[in-house]
Design a protein that fits this description.
alpha+beta; OB fold (Dihydrolipoamide Acetyltransferase, E2P); 5-stranded mixed beta barrel; 18% helix; 31% strand
Length: 131
């Protein structure tokens, strides 16, 4: 008489696979940190990623080799004060696009140390044509 295999293993394996699939979908949809511009950062609660352009002439020293500066929208004039209490990347300067993670405290965006990244403008400009 042939031995019949129990469907219990198959049911358990399919159940585990289903739970993992649901978890992956949840993480993909709800697991990210919101990315905001200076014009709407004050409306968000909790941790966000702030993206904008450093306003030239506003960079001042802050604690722990950090900086205080204004960040503006890439294509607008809205500005928001930022304090970053860590050494900024080497490419940090006025007019450069940056992104950093942090929260708003008392009307100032406080960046988490180690979270600032700058965008290299040469990577986002059209290549020059040879003469």
């Amino acid at each position: 008489m042939p031995r019949t295999k129990s469907p219990a293993r198959l049911v358990i394996a399919l159940s585990v696979a289903g739970v993992l699939a649901i978890f992956l979908v949840y993480v993909a949809i709800a697991g990210g940190t919101p990315q905001v511009k200076p014009s709407n950062v004050a409306q968000h609660k909790g941790s966000v990623v702030l993206v904008g352009t450093v306003v030239s002439g506003t960079i001042q020293p802050a604690a722990n080799d950090g900086k205080r500066f204004l960040l503006r929208d890439r294509d607008g004039t809205a500005r928001f004060p930022v304090v970053y209490r860590d050494a900024p990347p080497d490419q940090f300067k006025g007019g450069r696009e940056v992104s950093l993670q942090g929260t708003v405290h008392d009307g100032v965006f406080v960046g988490q140390p180690g979270s600032m990244m700058t965008k290299c403008p040469s990577k986002y400009q059209a290549a020059k044509k040879a003469a």
